[in-house]
Amino acid sequence: MQQDKKTSQDRKRLGELESESQIWKPHWSEIAEYVNPRKGRFLVGGNSASQAGKKKGRKIINSTGTQALRVLAAGLQGGMTPPDSPWLKLGLHDEELEEYAPVRNWLHDVRNIMLDTFQESNFYSTTHSNYRELGAFGTCSMVMNEDFKTKIRCRPFTIGEYMFSLDESYRVNGLYRPFDMSVANIVAKFGKENVSSKIKDEIKRKNFSRMYEVVHVIRENQERDGNKTSHEGQPWVDKYFEKGNKDHDVYLSEKSFHSKPFAAARWDVTGIDPYGEGPGMDQLGDIKMLQKLEEKKLKALDKSIDPSMNGPVGSQANGGTGVSGGINWVEDTRNGFVPTHLVQSSMQDTAYEIDRVERRIEKGFYNDLFMSIIGTDKKMTAYEVAQRHAEKLVMLGPVIFRIQSEYHTPAVERSFNIHKDLGAFPPMPEELQGQNLKIKYISPLAQAQRMVGIDSIQQTMNFAMSLAEASPEVLDKIDFDEAVDQFGDMAGTPPKIVKSDDVVKEVRQLREQKIAAQQQQEQIAASAQNAKTLSETKVDTNSLLDGLTKL
Fold first, then answer.
1. How buried is residue 283: exposed, middle or buried, by Cβ count under 10 Å (0-12/13-18/19+)?
2. Three-point CA angle 272, 275, 281, nearest 5°
């Protein structure tokens, strides 16, 4: 175990990942300059916190790219993780067991508890920030930890301050993050007994504000012993070490987790790249061209309104200028003060070209689709979104699936395990012991993706009902109960609205028993009435019933 505490392997891996990320940083930096200027940390030697408050975005004249990114982020929030409505449900791989009422109700209640926690914590603000990172840089990341007040607490990162490692299947299995900490904070977080001699010397000299670089590593536990349930047996480890002090070859702290404590999402991935590519990269050329067009338009407008002038040299014997409002002193005085040059530019043509580029940028950020989801005039239903934007939904399908698998699923699983460890869930039904839960996404975008399935159900049912007018037997082909279950599952209907199969079976049995009892009562009443009628019918001096009994 002593060997496991050595930081040499993580130091070596960090150096490899830093070299790899340097290839990406110039591109990320350019995207930040033109699209998302307050994001990104690209300076060597820490997280560039000293640059955080400085003026940025100097290259942005036309902010269409920045605004389009904001619409995309808001659309992803409203379309995939809306804070005001359920966007996930819990299910089982065993669909029959999932239909059992106590199981369904427990899954529903647990889901609601987690959604309430998401509301109370900073999950949604963190996720919105990461959607902006994802749209601009194609990559985003966060960690989720336990919190005493809100159960969970998320920490978003910005591009350039972390690095990913990949496993043999090219999935993100590690996050390495160098950052600066003061001596005071290092001691407060890790304890004086765990820090290096350098830090201890700083304490003696009372240099508490002196900054040192610390590395935070979250990765799969390559030294995992599956036979143990302690730290050595957990699949994920969380470690810190001092970056610049190789002599202190032990970790400042070590923790372990049984679920992935971070989420790392990519918009799209080329080959075995560790980082993603997104709309910000795709639209960077148009965004840069837009700035150039705006700059030239403003120059033309300035020169047409306030041009440089030619004036008689005798009026002022100094040099000339070509800037707006300047005067060139010339020998030719026949025309007095005249413009140096006449700007023959069509502002209408320039405005038209700018408008074309702006629309291309907005289209590249899927603004037309997302405005349908977050529009203030009318929020479209998932069915309406699917009908109007079927082509874009097909294009976004792989992106939606990737975000769900790389970001939402780790976040939901981590939140579930934190709640479970804190005892925040109601008692689990015995039938769920040993069962693996399944996450189903029912957000507007996820539902829109499934609208094709709902459409096919509706078409089949309508077709069968039309045939039933001529041949009622055709309805025997339709399992109406299963149709309702499938439709409700695709539409994200709360499980308490659609009754489970076992409850429906009980209801139908009670109905059949009630009908049978009612029929029996009617038969008894009918028999009694017949007996009374026979007894009262006279044949000569005897009743008809008397005659029948004498036969």
1. buried
2. 115
Across 488-507, b (16+ Cβ under 10 Å) vs e yields ebbbbeebeebbbbeebeee
Find residue 88's DSSP bridge partners: 441
318 — phi, psi (to 5°)? -135, 180
Q: Please give the model's pTM, rounded to 2 decimal places.
A: 0.77
> Which residues does residue 147 pair with via DSSP β-bridges, in sequence order?
151
Give the separation between CA 274 and CA 172, rounded to whole angstroms: 7
d(CA 277, CA 70): 17
Of 256, 263, 222, the closest CA to residue 239 belongs to: 256
Q: Per residue of the chain (551 residues), give pLDDT as tens.
A: 344 468 889 999 999 999 999 999 999 999 999 999 888 887 544 445 555 556 677 889 999 999 999 999 999 999 899 999 899 999 998 888 988 889 999 999 999 999 999 999 999 999 999 999 999 999 999 999 999 999 999 999 999 999 999 999 999 999 999 999 999 999 999 999 999 999 999 999 999 999 999 999 999 998 777 666 667 778 999 999 999 877 778 899 999 998 999 999 999 999 899 999 999 999 999 999 999 999 988 887 777 777 776 666 655 555 555 555 666 666 665 666 666 666 555 677 888 899 999 999 999 999 988 887 766 445 666 666 666 666 677 778 889 999 999 999 999 999 999 999 999 999 999 999 888 899 999 888 888 777 655 666 777 777 888 888 888 887 777 777 777 777 776 665 666 677 777 777 888 888 888 888 888 888 888 777 777 776 666 655 555 556 555 55
Helix (H, G, I), strand (E, B) or coil at 176: strand
* Residue the block writes with tokens 């799209």: 268
Beta strand ranges found along 357-483 (DSSP E): 437-441
List Cβ<8 Å contacts ≥24 apart for 496-501.
Answer: 496/104, 496/105, 496/108, 499/101, 500/99, 500/100, 500/101, 500/104, 501/96, 501/99
Residue at 129: amino acid letter = S
Q: Burial level of 415, CB count in 10 A (0-12/13-18/19+)?
A: buried
CA diameter of the chain: 154
How many helices, marked H, and strands, marked E, lie in the chain?
18, 15
Are the beta carbons of 199 and 186 closer than 8 angstroms?
yes
